[in-house]
Q: What sequence folds into this?
């Protein structure tokens, strides 16, 4: 321990190990430090960064803790006794370390500087630990900026503040869109607001196009908060040129606003795998894939329309007056093509719900699907509002179909870029709410989403999963998530899922469970240098004022926005 | 101010010595007081009084059984008695070449060396600058009333240090004692209890 105690010191290291935690004795009252505090330990050439994961009361002898010395001794003695025999130890999860070199006055400094030119020294994961009695202090604004970046740097976007000191914490948006990400939290923890904040950042800084599957019509147009009853601006209201609002089905009205265009799905775009995906929703049998395969063999891309036209149980009389299935009946087709009659008729009956969907039409007036893809390729963002079609059936079918198209398109353009030097694809972030419906263990391998989560990073497409039950999402998908932002979770399985694959997950677990129900989230994963709990930004007028740089909080003029996207 | 002699050395060891004095001299030394034994011009031993013993003799045994003792007889016994009062002193340090050490003296004092009570300045010189290394000699001593000796010593020291303007000496001393004794709960509680009974508290505080 050095002779001089640095200011801001909160304690000193008394033990611990690299694999789990370091222990430090607090020299300040226990209430001044909270779980999740970002602390710094400096010892000679190295500086170590860590998180407080636990606080424990201790005593040199249990009897000192048992007896209330305040009542037995004069104040000066009781205070001394309290301070010297009763103490608080903190557990610190060491995360990063950085070589800061000798002091400027040290003769060894020039030599060190020569071997470590400015810009070459970055924090690295901890590989050793500070020695005993290393002073521990709370991180200051400089430390936070050193680790999480500064808002002044391009690509860094403020998502919240440290809980104790209120210092700004940024995420690197370039890194954020490089891999799939997840926003998790129990219901009512502010997932939607946080998602809006992240999306606003992505849209403002134009690092990627964003496609939002807005199942509950809450991102595109203005909304009213369910708890505060305040007006919540929609993304399209704030970015009227950058954001295209798309409504599912013709004549869709999104909370009284007309979408930029409607999405009607051509029957020809529906493939057997889109129906197989609905196995649980439609209660389909094991024979379904065989029947669908036969339908496609028989009718090609018109299979959906042809199957829709078939009737169950329709008969006609043969020359002997005997009733036989008519050729345009389900049974007639099945007999002719050697497919199980009962299975085909059963499938036809169950698919009636799909045939009834009004947004699936034979020849749509406009190709909404292509318009969505073109808008995304042109650097715009698309919010697809499901309008009145909020059932799981609609969500599963439409999201998977669009994502499949997008995957094909982005893979194609990426291959052209790599093979023929054509234009580089624009990164795309697909935002999926209620992700466990699409990415659960049963369905993950059937949907395009799991492919995107696993492989599409190299094709410039990543997911932003928003969900309240991360444990229901397939492990393989969860393991691919780069940045995870989680609000309070209570279920043990959900806690484990969010922390899967993260170093020090056992120690972070308590931190995650102890987050405030609102506005507190834990940032972790590959996309952030180290896990840190933060108080998230508030999605209010001042947020928009700061983001858009306008005091009145209103959107920029059309001219300004047009110029800002380079048109 | 002339130094106050409290007696002469009767016997000594590396860890302490016993001073003999007349009963009439006993109004000066007190439990916990800091004393010194000058041995050479630049070497003197410091000690703390840990016990004061008044032994009996044959005459006293006879007198205590007398039914009627006149004041003259009592005074005569006290002034002219042959048995000295024995003052036990625990060696707690020494001063050599103008530097104070809280270590046991390299060699003990010799018979009939004079022992003097430390003046307030000498007390402050030995106990000042937040140096409390000599406490370990008291805490490790056998057969002494540790808590009482410490309390008496701190009471005396506080008055001296307060006069000199060092008002935090008692707090510092208490902190040192707690640090040294926090693994010895029974002893610490005895010491704390004794300190709680002190008449004085650090300036600006209330008991």
A:
């Amino acid at each position: 321990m050095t002779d001089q105690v640095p200011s801001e010191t909160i304690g000193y290291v008394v033990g611990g190990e690299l694999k789990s935690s370091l222990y430090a004795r607090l020299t300040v009252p226990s209430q001044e430090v909270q779980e999740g505090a970002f602390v710094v330990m400096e010892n000679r050439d190295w500086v170590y960064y860590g998180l407080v994961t636990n606080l424990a009361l201790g005593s040199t002898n249990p009897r000192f803790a048992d007896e209330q010395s305040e009542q037995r001794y004069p104040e000066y003695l009781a205070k001394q006794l309290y301070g010297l025999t009763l103490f608080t130890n903190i557990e610190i999860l060491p995360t990063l370390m950085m070589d800061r070199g000798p002091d400027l006055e040290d003769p060894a400094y020039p030599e060190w500087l020569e071997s470590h030119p400015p810009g070459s020294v970055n924090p690295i994961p901890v590989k050793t630990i500070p020695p005993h009695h290393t002073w521990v202090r709370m991180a200051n604004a400089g430390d936070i900026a050193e680790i999480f970046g500064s808002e002044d740097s391009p690509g860094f976007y403020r998502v919240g503040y440290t809980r104790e000191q209120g210092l700004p914490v940024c995420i690197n948006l370039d890194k954020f869109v490089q891999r799939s990400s997840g926003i998790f939290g129990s219901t009512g923890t502010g997932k939607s607001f946080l998602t809006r904040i992240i999306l606003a950042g992505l849209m403002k800084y134009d690092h990627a196009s964003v496609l939002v599957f807005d199942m509950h019509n809450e991102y595109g147009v203005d909304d009213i908060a369910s708890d505060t009853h305040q007006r919540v601006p929609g993304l399209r209201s704030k970015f009227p040129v950058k954001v295209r609002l798309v409504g599912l089905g013709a004549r869709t009205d999104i909370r009284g606003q007309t979408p930029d265009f409607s999405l009607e799905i051509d029957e020809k775009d529906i493939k057997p795998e889109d129906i197989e995906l609905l196995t649980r929703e439609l209660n389909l049998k094991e024979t379904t894939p065989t029947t669908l395969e036969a339908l496609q063999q028989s009718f090609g891309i018109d299979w959906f329309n042809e199957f829709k036209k078939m009737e169950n149980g329709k008969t006609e009389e043969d020359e002997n007056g005997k009733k036989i299935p008519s050729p345009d009946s389900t049974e007639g087709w099945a007999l002719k093509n050697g497919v199980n009659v009962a299975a085909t008729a059963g499938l036809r009956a169950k698919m009636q719900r799909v045939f009834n969907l009004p947004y699936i039409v034979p020849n749509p007036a406009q190709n909404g699907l292509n318009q969505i893809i073109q808008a995304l390729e042109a650097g715009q963002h698309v919010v697809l509002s499901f309008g009145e079609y909020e059932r799981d059936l609609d969500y599963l079918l439409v999201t998977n179909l669009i994502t499949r198209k997008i995957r094909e398109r982005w893979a194609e353009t990426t291959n052209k870029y790599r093979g023929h030097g054509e234009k580089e694809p624009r990164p795309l972030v697909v935002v999926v709410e209620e992700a466990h419906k699409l990415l659960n263990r049963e369905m993950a391998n059937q949907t395009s989403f799991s492919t995107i989560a696993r492989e599409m990073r190299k094709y410039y497409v990543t997911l932003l999963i928003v969900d309240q039950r991360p444990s229901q999402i397939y492990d393989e998908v969860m393991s691919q998530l780069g940045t995870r932002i989680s609000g309070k979770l209570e279920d043990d399985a959900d806690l484990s899922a969010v922390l899967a694959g993260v170093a020090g997950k056992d120690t972070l677990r308590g931190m995650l469970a102890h987050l405030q129900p609102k506005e507190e989230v834990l940032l972790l994963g590959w996309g952030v240098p180290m896990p840190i709990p933060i108080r998230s930004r508030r999605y209010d007028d001042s947020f928009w004022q700061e983001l858009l740089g306008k005091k009145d909080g209103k959107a920029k003029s059309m001219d300004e926005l047009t110029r800002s996207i380079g048109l | 101010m002339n130094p106050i002699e409290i007696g002469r050395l009767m016997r000594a060891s590396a860890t302490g010595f016993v001073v003999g004095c007349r009963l009439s001299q006993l109004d000066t030394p007190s439990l916990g007081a800091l004393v010194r034994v000058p041995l050479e011009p630049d070497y003197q031993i410091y000690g703390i009084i840990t016990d004061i013993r008044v032994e009996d003799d044959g005459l006293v045994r006879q007198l205590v059984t007398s039914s009627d003792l006149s004041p003259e007889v009592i005074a005569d016994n006290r002034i002219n008695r042959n048995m000295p009062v024995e003052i036990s002193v625990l060696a707690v340090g020494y001063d050599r070449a103008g530097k104070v050490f809280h270590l046991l003296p390299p060699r003990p004092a010799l018979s009939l060396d004079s022992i003097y009570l430390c003046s307030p300045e000498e007390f402050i010189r030995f106990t000042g600058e937040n140096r409390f290394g000599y406490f370990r000699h008291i805490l490790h001593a056998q057969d002494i009333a540790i808590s009482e000796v410490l309390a008496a010593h701190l009471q005396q020291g506080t008055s001296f240090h307060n006069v000199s303007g060092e008002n935090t000496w008692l707090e510092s001393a208490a902190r040192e004692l707690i640090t040294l004794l926090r693994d010895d709960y029974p002893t610490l509680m005895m010491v704390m209890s004794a300190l709680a009974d002190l008449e004085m508290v650090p300036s600006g505080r209330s008991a």
Remarks:
- Chain A is about 35% helix and 25% strand.
- The first strand of chain A starts at residue 9 and ends at 16.
